[in-house]
Amino acid sequence: MKIGIPRAFLYFKYGHLWETFFKELGIDIIISPETTKETLQIGTKYSIDETCLSSKIYMGHVYSLIGKCDYIFVPRIATLQDNNMVCTKFHAVYDLVNNTFKEYNIKILDYNVDHRKNQTEMSAFLEMGQKLNKKKFDVVRAYYLAKQNEKRMNDVALLEQEQLLKINNKIKLLIVAHPYNVYDKYMGEPILKHIEELDCIPIIADIAPKEEAIKKSKKISPTLPWLYNKELLGTIELYKKDIDGIILMTSFPCGPDALVNEIILRRVKDKPIINLILDEQEGTAGRETRIESFVDIIKLKKGDVNGKEKN
Fold it and tell me: Which residues contact 276 (CB under 8 A, 6 or more apart)?
């Protein structure tokens, strides 16, 4: 048996968990290739115009796995801890994939997480293990080992980022964006590389400790319904003393991000902010120019008229 995992959406958040789980069960996996222009073009073909850029890319990754595996892995997540909501696209993605690619007779492996219905992550993985005809003991063991590896990898990333936050002689820019936008080869990676080329340090909001960030998010918006956005929002409060500026990175036209970014722009006043909208237009020159201008403004704010660092 071989299971295909699209390299998009929540893969960048739960990839370590998924890969370890399947490997511990002795199941071969295949990850779709990095995003390219062709990935987006194919995904756009199989999406309606109003779909966000990240969703179109996801559909392109699903298509790239057709005929290469026995099952395509498409999890469904509606609500998480304390009945926190996530974007509806993560609730609807199974139906979108199933209906869109029906002509190809693909087999989909899914799991459902919805705390409103007492469907926890662990119970979802147990149910998925039954679908794969695995023994309960083996499934439980694989899940716990996967969670341990997920925590270990997250702890390593957090430790590395905390070391970067201690560097004082470089401009540090907080990237407030979902990991599927930040780490995607076609979307966010060129932006991160350009920031580093400008001798600045990108600080990734999604790496911050989640529970602490969620608590901090209430200082900016106490009523925000989306869990993943809370995790990002709270990082601003968590790191504001250590960063020099904030970059909001959003795929067009994401509804939750549009609302949250507006909240940030209105309520966060003590740090310079730039809002980058990622769309289907080719070329990165415009974005790079905006980032360069943003960094120049930060340098001017940090130094005097001669460009010397303030004491």
Answer: 191, 247, 248, 249, 250, 287, 290, 291
* Separation of alpha carbons 71 and 63, rounded Å: 12
C-beta pairs of 89-96 under 8 Å, 24+ apart in sequence: 89/9, 89/52, 89/54, 89/55, 90/9, 90/10, 93/9, 93/55, 93/58, 96/55, 96/59
C-alpha span between 205 and 86 (Å, rounded): 17
CATH ID of 2-135, from 3.30.565, 2.60.40, 3.30.450, 3.40.50 = 3.40.50
pTM for the full model? 0.93
pLDDT tens per residue, range 174-228:
999 999 999 999 999 999 999 999 999 999 999 999 999 999 999 999 999 999 9
- Quick one: residue 26, left, alpha or beta (phi over 0 = left, psi -120 to 50 = alpha)? left
248 — alpha (psi -120 to 50), left (phi > 0) or beta? beta
Do 157-302 and 2-135 fall under one CATH topology?
A: yes
Sorted by where each begins, the domain ranges of the chain are 2-135, 157-302
* CATH 3.40.50.11890 is the classification of domain 157-302: yes
